[in-house]
Every structure is written in C-alpha cells, then in structure tokens.
Amino acid sequence: MARSALLNVMVQAAMKAGRSLSRDFGEVQNLQVSMKGPGDYVSQADRKAEDIIFAELSRARPGYGFLMEERGAVTGDDDQHRWIVDPLDGTTNFLHGIPIFSVSIALERQGQVVAGVVYNPAMDELYTAERGGGAFLNDRRLRVAARTKLSDAVIGCGVPHLGRGRHGNFLIELRNVMAEVSGIRRLGSAALDLAYVAAGRMDGFWEDGLSAWDIAAGLLLIREAGGFVSDLNGGQTMLEKGALVAGNEAIHRALLKTVTKPLKA
Q: Coiled-coil annotation: which residues (predicted)?
C-alpha cells in the first residue's frame, strides 16, 4: 500500500513509541506508577511514549498544534493542522500485563480528521487510514463486517469504572443490548475497539465518556473501512462529547436504536 509522507511520519512516530512501550511492558512490575485519578493511571511508560511522539511529529511538522492526553492542548503556528494523540490507550491493561493496548495518532485538518494510526505493539498490528484512501491492517485492506442482524453480532463496549459517572445509564444500555446480540466484548482500549470494528472482528461498538484522543484515529478507520459512526443522537459531535455508536450501516442503525431506548419495566 502507498502511504503519504504525512502518514509515514505518523507511522514512524507510533512505532517508535510502541517500541518504547514494548520494552516497558516487559518490566511492567518495575514501573513507577502514579494515580492521576480513580482508575486513571499514568506511568513512566505513558509519559515516555508521549515525549517520543511529540518530538517526532514536531520535528517533521514544526508548526502543527497538538491535543495530547498528558500535555493537553499545545498551540502551533499552523492553525489549520492539529495532531490528536493518545500515547498509551489501555493503560490499565498495560499495567496489569494484558497485551491489549495501543498508540493512537490522528491528524486533524481544518477541524476534520484526515489521517489516523492505531498501533498495538504487543501484537505488532498497525492500523492506518487516510481520508479517501481506505483503511489497512499492516498491508491488508479493511472492510467492516457484513452482518446485518444484531442477533448475529458481537458488539464491543466500554464499561464506566470507579470515579466515572453514568453507571446507572450504562447498565440500562447494557441490558438493552444484551437482549439483542450474540455477544458483548470489553477490550479496555477504545482505539483498538474501533480498529476491530474497522477490521470486521467486532460488528459494532458503543461507549460514552471518551476523550478525543481515544477515538479520533479510530473514527477515520471505521469510515474508511465502509462503516458508520455517530454520537448517541445520530449526530457528529463524537470528538466534542465523547459518546459514539459504530458499525456497518445496518448494525449502526440497529445498535443506536437499542442503546438509546428506555428500559422496559
């Protein structure tokens, strides 16, 4: 597959950060871990990976701004472009030795995501997408799954944990979805959840309470793989509000309806 110069820069940054994470993953018990909030851990590995990505992308495109999990917003001279970066999505998995975590990098141009990379270094799986150019896993083109019935579908989700609200609302959503689908999965990395939908490994996904850096690259992966993504109202405020439903056209429509319906008494 042919990649643009910008996407090559993103891939290089993601894989360099991934190599650093892989080394730390092998010594996860020795990491010094601080608690940023209930259930929201930050490690030396996380910060180191973000430093690597920041340095690589800044060197390649000095004027671009950033939105990063640890640094937050960094203004650049070029107000048309912004990198949206999660250096370690799935931190809790990482710290528990579970090999389901990822680096996520997206490029936003004039408010629209135009390129995305999600990399799982533990499995050496590289997901890439450019607007209008398709989505790929390593060098294999991706398409969302073709199933059209929720009863045949495996659906991914995120589960609100300690310190996060919406427990009651989520349980209503979960009960509604459980009654309709073949299976439910919770990976612990929203970026990989979305990549799995793009790859057809899961038929759909929904979650609320996400940040832009969790999902920006994954949104593009799904769209370039022929899928559909919206917020819980069917709109396009996912990056702003952090809630989304994804799948192919039929599954997205059915899952959105199921997630948002009131619980029957």
A: none
Residue 38 and residue 162: Cα distance in Å, rounded? 6
Residues in a beta bridge with 89: 102
Per-residue burial over 68-85, b if 16 or more Cβ lie within 10 Å, else e, is bbbeeeeebeeeebbbbb
From residue 179, how far is each of 108, 201, 203 by CA, in Å? 38, 21, 16
Model pLDDT for residues 216-258, shown as the tens digit of each residue: 999 999 999 999 999 999 999 999 999 999 999 999 999 999 9
Per-residue pLDDT at 33? 76
Write down all domains in the chain, each with its CATH number in brackets: 5-141 (3.30.540.10), 150-259 (3.40.190.80)
**pTM as predicted:** 0.94
Q: Which of 176, 136, 171, 177 is nearest to 153 (CA)?
A: 177
Cα separation, 98 vs 121, whole angstroms:
12
